[in-house]
Amino acid sequence: MLASQARRYRAERCVGVVIPTRNGELYLAEALESVLRQTHRPLEVVVADDGSTDATLELAQRYAPAVRVLALPHRGLGATRNAGVEALSGDFVAFLDQDDVWSQRKLELQLAAFDAPSPPELVFGHVREFISPELEPQLAGHIRCVSEPRPAALPGTMLATRAALVRVGPFSTRWVSNDFMAWLLAAGRLGLRERVLTEHVLSRRLHLSNYSRLTASVRSEYLHVIKESLDLRRRSATA
């Protein structure tokens, strides 16, 4: 294939982007702007709203027609993420949390990884954290922030083929905040091919709301997800 043909082929790949949100009016605009500034086109952007009670829906609808908004009843993160995926039609799918921000070349860099002779099914990148600027210094001082880029398997660092999503199956609706971790562990059990780029692709915002999610119940849920995955591996090995 000629280089010009290869570039055109990459440019024509449509990436579907799902932003699951609930009461995200404070940060959603910044997340959306980072998606719409991507150097890659075409994009199919869906904001899947999980029954917000603030102005999230109105804010998201201002970005139409570049952004499609799904107004859903409150069913939780896994169900909301699934609804967003079902609304997409492209061969690649990416996710972004409502309070995080992509680097401008995130999709361009990750799509290039799929041109390898033995292409991956999932591509990740590096994340760096930042403390949300509206926090008062006294509050910000209590939050541990890793500002140096590091590899991370997070929803916002991943680009997946649609075939990979179909192979692994939908996100679990059983968990409050660990649906992605459960899905990723399932992908690992199936042996999906992964690659981690060295480039920074995601800036993860630290603020009081997401910091407070690190509660005993959330940590307990995380341990349950890990244990369940290990049990499934053992049963599979025994069989």
Q: How would you explain this protein's 3D organization?
A:
- The chain has 239 residues and is α/β, with parallel strands linked by helices.
- It has a single domain, classed as Spore Coat Polysaccharide Biosynthesis Protein SpsA, Chain A (Alpha-Beta Complex), CATH 3.90.550.10.
- Helix content is 38%, strand content 23%.
- The chain contains 10 helices and 9 strands.
- Strands 1, 2, 3, 4, 5, 6, 7, 8 and 9 form a 9-stranded mixed sheet that branches.
- Strand 1, helix 2 and strand 2 form a beta-alpha-beta unit.
- Helix 8 runs parallel beside helix 10.
- The N terminus is likely disordered.
Sheet of most strands: 9 strands, mixed
Helix content: 25-40%
What form results from the Cα inertia axes? globular
Rounded to an integer in angstroms, the radius of gyration calculated over CA atoms is 18 Å
CATH superfamily: Spore Coat Polysaccharide Biosynthesis Protein SpsA, Chain A
- Give the CATH architecture: Alpha-Beta Complex
Which topology does CATH recognise?
Spore Coat Polysaccharide Biosynthesis Protein SpsA, Chain A
* Integer average pLDDT: 89
Q: What's the level 1 CATH class?
A: Alpha Beta
Instruction: Name the structural class.
Output: alpha/beta
Q: Give the end-to-end Cα distance, rounded to a whole number of Å.
A: 45 Å
Q: Total number of helical segments?
A: 10
> Which ranges are low-confidence, i.e. pLDDT below 50, for 5 or more consecutive residues?
1-11
